[in-house]
Amino acid sequence: MLDINDCELIKSIPSDIVHLPRLSCLVLPNWTELPEGIENMKSLHSLRGLDMKSLKCFMGLSELFNLRELHMSIDTSLELPKIDALICFIEKLYNLEYLFISGNPAECEHSQQRSSSNPFEHIERLELQFWRLWRVPKWLCGLHSLRLLKLYVEETSTQDVHLLGKLPSLVHLEFRACEIPDERAMLGTGLFPVLEFLNFWSRKDTTAYLGFEAGAMPSLRTLRIRGSHWGGTVPVGTEHLLHLQEIKVHGVCNNKNTVETLKEVKDAFKQTLLMHPNRPSVEVHHL
User: Fold this and answer.
1) What is the DSSP letter of 168?
2) pLDDT below 50 — which residues of the chain?
3) The sheet that has 2-3: what strands, in order across it?
4) Cβ contact 119:87 at 8 Å
5) pTM here?
6) Pick from 224, 217, 260, 208: which is nearest to 242 by CA?
7) For residues 143 and 21, what is the distance between their CA atoms, to the nearest angstrom?
8) What is the pLDDT of residue 254?
């Protein structure tokens, strides 16, 4: 293992670092561009801090078939054709279990969703919360081993939420959507079968958007809701979340006194959960 993430004196990565054929873990300072020849590091299982800029680096990365963990950044100036090429090359890493991507290329925000005929078969953790996509990618349906997902999209819909709910192994979901539709997303039996942690974040009133039918999210223990304001309601059917232990509501604000509003929100949730068998704890925060 070679960890130089905290080495402030390092100005650039030595070009001969790619000639360490037995190295299994390489942790670099964030936004580090590797020299050419990364494909020589066949033993790498973990690679962190990589800044993807050149197509040659993309191609070399796709030959690291033993890679299990990849943390990388995408330059904000990267053009859409290069982004598509990068995703194509990453898809060749069939043994990848953990993928973290940061960066927000401007062209990627409103690009069309590309389809993937070969989704990651073994991926367990996918963190894209710092890479804003236009909608929920349909290729997520094929990630049957996915346990943790952090996703940020420009727009979502009830159909998109239901798509995420069909992931059979998903335990932890952090989902941020800038825009959500006016109709309520009702979640019922068969969706999110093993989910234990849900953090749903939007500019809109998320308490009015989510709804739970009997049998919904049978394993959910923690529910976190974030929105820009509170419209005076609580999610319909919260009492159906039979294993729920805690609710945290963030981002409550409106024209009323903040302290008064926080109390109103907390009282509304507690009133709804009076008959809940677990009597979940309720926390309400302004931010």
Assistant:
1) T
2) 107, 109-113, 115
3) 2-3, 25-32, 46-52, 69-74, 98-102, 125-133, 148-155, 172-179, 197-202, 222-226, 246-250, 281-284
4) no
5) 0.88
6) 217
7) 31
8) 55
